[in-house]
Design brief:
12 strands; Hypothetical Protein Tm841, Chain: A,domain 3; 6-stranded mixed β-sheet
């Protein structure tokens, strides 16, 4: 087995979450049964924002619980959906009387369990709605469940979180979230796969001269492999399809997210952003805001994703609004 800082692979998630809550007591409170995080100081008289999904993507979603973003986060096991019971209990804990907005990445288990949780909430008279995040351009095909949800979820949680703090109602928040999703696309590339806690082998092997292009955040193999190349040659392969898919024209503005997948250094990520910024300038697109760092990871995968989010004045204003969470604060 690879050497890792763990006790028991079966307890790694619960032990990490206990430690996370102990490290951030001003932001979050951990409820071990059935398993969810809520804001340490609950908000009053606002729509509650709740998200979640499999663990292994930290700081998503736990790191975004706090003022200006999520009111609760529901973690599953590594790369596994939380249960409908977990989601229901987290939603009830965060609910203030104005309804609950669920922000859900497009994976079959997550979608199913959040929908069941919504039905359970309706039985108790609690209104809820879902914003489905499906930004992964690599899975934009007519086959299967559609595009996967990846790093655009951070933009949805930030923008909708700010609007909720301003008092927007449930219908308005859901419409806003869907607008952000519609204007977002992501592509990812991996140089090496990650490995589950306690396992000695990564989820896939890559030859030295190849990269996994269009990789998923659960360690899924991509549809194709391409030749490894310097950053100045790899990054255009990520950016150009995003600009084309979003039909970005000259003079438009975007929020740019350059996201590390777990084992990529900030030194590399800022080099990637330098290339992204150059390419956008050549296309006449303004990178109005940027977020660079590891926010939606895949355990210890070496790689990165690039997300472009179409940004109008309202989206930029809400992006700039204050937030205070363990992983993102301004």
């Amino acid at each position: 087995m690879r050497r890792q800082f763990i006790n028991d692979p079966g307890e790694v998630v619960s032990e990490a979450l206990e430690g996370f809550a102990a490290a951030w007591p001003r932001h979050v409170r951990w409820n071990s049964e059935p398993g969810y995080l809520v804001r340490a100081s609950p908000a009053r008289d606002k729509v509650a924002l709740v998200s979640g999904g499999g663990s292994g993507h930290e700081p998503l979603h736990a790191g975004f619980v706090g003022a200006g973003m999520l009111d609760a986060a529901v973690p599953g096991a590594v790369f596994a959906s939380p249960t409908a019971v977990q989601i229901r209990e987290a939603s009830l804990a965060a609910h203030t009387g104005r309804g609950v907005l669920h922000v859900v990445k497009n994976y079959t288990g997550d979608v199913l369990n959040f929908r069941i949780a919504g039905e359970l909430l309706a039985d108790e008279g609690v209104a809820s709605d879902i914003v489905l995040v499906d930004d992964d351009l690599a899975t934009d095909t007519a086959e299967g469940p559609g595009r996967r949800g990846t790093a655009a979820v951070v933009a949805v949680e930030k923008v909708c979180g700010a609007a909720a703090e301003e008092g927007a109602d449930l219908a308005a928040l859901a419409a806003l979230g869907r607008r952000v999703v519609a204007g977002s696309r992501t592509l990812s590339v991996a140089l090496a796969a990650g490995a589950h806690p306690g396992q000695s082998r990564p989820s896939f092997d890559l030859p030295d001269g190849e990269v996994e292009f269009g990789v998923g955040i659960h360690g899924e193999r991509a549809r194709e492999r391409r030749a490894f190349a310097p950053t100045r040659e790899l990054v255009p392969q990520l950016v150009s399809p995003l600009v084309e898919a979003l039909e970005l024209g000259r003079g438009e503005r975007v929020i740019t997210i350059v996201n590390g997948l777990g084992a990529t250094t900030d030194l590399e990520l800022y080099g990637v952003f330098r290339e992204v910024r150059r390419l956008l300038a050549e296309a006449g697109v303004e990178p109005a805001r940027a977020l660079v760092g590891s926010y939606v990871t895949s355990l210890d995968m070496a790689g990165c994703s690039v997300t472009l989010v179409r940004a109008d004045e309202e989206v930029l204003r809400l992006w700039d609004a204050p937030a205070a969470t363990p992983a993102l604060t301004w």
